[in-house]
Specification:
With 674 residues, the chain is α+β, with helices and mostly antiparallel strands. It contains 23 helices and 22 strands. It is elongated.
């Protein structure tokens, strides 16, 4: 029986053909006995569900065809199979394999040419055409147009030509949701190239950025970047490394923190990786609340399980929300000067821009510093890029026209109202209930756009979660110093109210910090003059971690920011802050000199009374206020005079006749002491 025909028959037709074949064989066996043939035909017709006439016709056609089972197949299907065998699974598999072997998109004509050559030269058996029907004539259905229609679909083509990673969007995936998470439950770390060239000193290069995204709210919480440049000593390109990842991790721990319900740090195995040592440090510092989730390595195992493997790379779908953020950030920075474009084909003007910038740098070297500082560069500097990125990230975090998954189910929507089409929107919770009813009634009657429900921005969702009491815990100072590592420690000296240091890896200008720290227990403390160890994060120069010479944590000092003299409000604030700190600095000195200050105040008051003629001595007070002393007062005065006389030799205030208290002169005015 022709298997290639039977394979392509519908189930009902195949069962019908097999039933007719079995019936014809029984009729043939019955024909050997005289008088049983017609009876066998009737029985076979009943079993096949057809009339005896039809059964006899099928039997005679089968006998005339030499008992070929295919003669029992409906002629419509026999004609279809006779026209073409190109739909046979065996032929399709062979044809698809030929197409896949041709790597280029135009490989179908090449595969068609190879098929025709194999047929005409009979050098290879073609599945489905093992009997070489009509050779050397080209079989039906082998036209290029028909075989192009039968070419493999996109999934098979991409999976076999390019690989599993390229075909991943068409394969089954795991779909996750943010619903049910809490603030800080997942933070995603990843690196991304920024599509522009910038300046860093005399170096020019493309920035590589490390960033952190909070998964629940979709808010960018920390980031930092540096350019890729060539090391003058080794000649190798310098990229982001583990030191930069530690700095970003320290930035996250010092400014954002982890959740008391537990936090998972989603990282990769390349640049944005966390070592096992750091993972253990974070685990113990947080009491077991911080865990690390690393993405798997994909691309090694390809479609052919026993075939050649691919190069292992990270799985971008493991951090899909962060990848989506990167795409949005690429779009937002594309207007900046020095843009390199989306792919590896940069704008043709970029070459001229880079050459002009090189010439400008060489010309600046020959100018005085004041004149060189007035040059306007064609590219952004790293400081200018950081300023622009700060605004861009703030705008992205404040966007409300996003389509973040699960937003409504998490309750991140807000209802707003306005009095008219030109009035600003106000949250309905801040509108007076009576006014709110009027607005709703007007909107229903007129159809005006006065009430809406919009999505919160990522920043609003973050504030909404914090308002519910979901506050994060920052890592302690000792843990931040451990993350940065001993190689980041710098010797510092305290000799005044400020700590001054220089680090060209952070800023070209001098860094100035207050010589006052916030201790780990939250108290403020002035640093005594002396030598210390300081840790400054290159991606977070706003605070200096101060340690003793033995490495003991003392506290964190704040960066002093200079104010513009034209900004009166900022100058007044700075003056008030400086005055308050001076008071705190002098507080202990004033305590020490309190007794001296009291003596000065008493002497100043005594001299004032003397100069202005006010009473000073007891007698002057007595004369001034007509006071009469009592006998007890007289005795007290006598005792005081005796004690003073004894303390001053050769001087006696007691009368020479040695009279007692009762014999005091009687001409004293009547004085009564209160």
């Amino acid at each position: 029986m022709g298997n290639h025909i039977m394979d392509n028959l519908p189930l009902l037709e195949r069962d019908k053909a097999l039933a007719l074949y079995a019936a014809c064989k029984r009729i043939k066996e019955a024909s050997a006995c005289r008088g049983l043939k017609m009876r066998a035909i009737d029985e076979a017709a009943a079993l096949c569900g057809i009339s005896a006439v039809s059964m006899r016709r099928w039997y005679e056609a089968w006998r005339a065809a030499g008992e070929d089972p295919l003669s029992l197949v409906d002629r419509r299907y026999r004609k279809q199979q006779a026209r073409s065998r190109t739909t046979l699974p065996r032929f399709l598999a062979d044809w698809h394999e030929r197409c896949i072997q041709c790597q280029r998109k135009g490989g179908v004509p090449t595969a068609h040419l190879q098929l025709l050559q194999d047929w005409s030269q009979r050098r290879k058996t073609i599945p489905g055409y093992e009997d070489w029907p009509g050779w050397p004539r080209i079989p039906e259905g082998w036209s290029l147009r028909n075989l192009q229609r039968l070419a493999p679909q996109s999934l098979e083509t991409v999976a076999l030509k390019q690989g599993i990673r390229a075909a991943a969007p068409q394969l089954a995936q795991v779909l996750a949701t943010r619903e049910g998470l809490w603030l800080g439950s997942h933070f995603m770390f990843d690196d991304v190239w920024l599509d522009l060239l910038v300046l860093a000193g005399r170096d020019k290069g493309q920035p590589l950025q490390l960033g952190v995204l909070e998964y629940l709210t979709g808010k960018r919480v920390a980031w930092g970047q540096k350019i890729r440049r060539r090391d003058e000593e080794t000649g190798k390109m310098i990229h982001l490394n583990q030191r930069d990842m530690r700095c970003i991790l320290a930035l996250w721990g010092a400014t954002v923190g982890y959740s008391p319900r537990g936090t998972t740090l989603v990282v990769e195995n390349g640049t944005a990786a966390i070592s096992k040592e750091l993972e253990e440090l974070l685990y113990h510092a947080s009491g077991g609340l911080i865990k690390v989730d690393r993405s798997g390595i994909g691309g090694v195992r390809q479609t052919l399980k026993q075939g050649h493997g691919g190069r292992g790379v990270g799985n971008p779908r493991h951090k899909a929300p962060l990848e989506s953020y990167h795409n949005l950030q690429h779009n937002r920075v594309s207007h900046l000067p020095g843009a390199t474009g989306h792919d590896r084909t940069p704008p043709e003007t970029l070459h001229g821009l880079a050459r002009a910038e090189d010439q400008l740098i060489k010309a600046a070297d020959k100018l005085p510093a004041e004149r060189a500082g007035q040059i306007k560069h064609y590219m952004l500097t790293m400081d200018e890029l950081s300023h622009e990125l700060t605004k861009i990230v703030r705008d992205i975090n404040a966007r409300t026209t996003h389509k973040l998954e699960g937003w409504e189910r998490c309750g991140y929507t807000v209802e707003e109202m306005r009095l008219s089409a030109s009035s600003p929107w106000t949250p309905s919770g801040e509108v007076d209930p009576a006014i709110a009813q009027t607005i709703v009634r007007n909107a229903c009657e007129t159809g005006a756009d006065l009430v809406r429900r919009r999505r919160m921005s990522p920043a609003e969702a973050w504030d909404y979660e914090e308002a519910k009491g979901n506050n994060l815990i920052k890592l302690p100072a000792w843990c931040i110093c451990q993350i940065l590592g001993m190689e980041m420690a710098r010797p510092i000296k305290v000799a005044s109210a400020y700590i001054r240091m220089r680090n060209k890896d952070i800023r070209d200008e001098e860094l100035i910090y207050e010589a006052r720290v916030v201790t780990p227990d939250g108290a403020r403390r002035e640093l005594a003059p002396g030598k210390y160890q300081g840790y400054v994060n290159p991606y977070d120069a706003n605070q200096l971690f101060v340690c003793g010479q033995d490495g003991r944590i003392i506290g964190t000092a704040a960066l002093v920011r200079r104010v513009c003299t034209a900004d009166t409000h900022a100058v007044e604030q700075a003056m008030g802050k400086a005055a308050g700190r001076r008071e705190q600095q002098l507080e202990y000195a004033r305590i020490i000199g309190a007794s001296t200050e009291a003596d000065i105040v008493r002497a100043r008051e005594h001299n004032r009374r003397v100069i202005e003629g006010e009473p000073v001595t007891i007698s002057e007070y007595a004369q001034a206020y007509s006071l009469t002393p009592t006998p007890a007062d007289k005795r007290a005065v006598a005792r005081a005079a005796t004690a003073a006389a004894e303390s001053m030799p050769d001087i006696s205030l007691i009368p020479a006749n040695g009279s007692n208290d009762d014999e005091l002169p009687h001409d004293l005015p009547d004085v009564r002491f209160l």
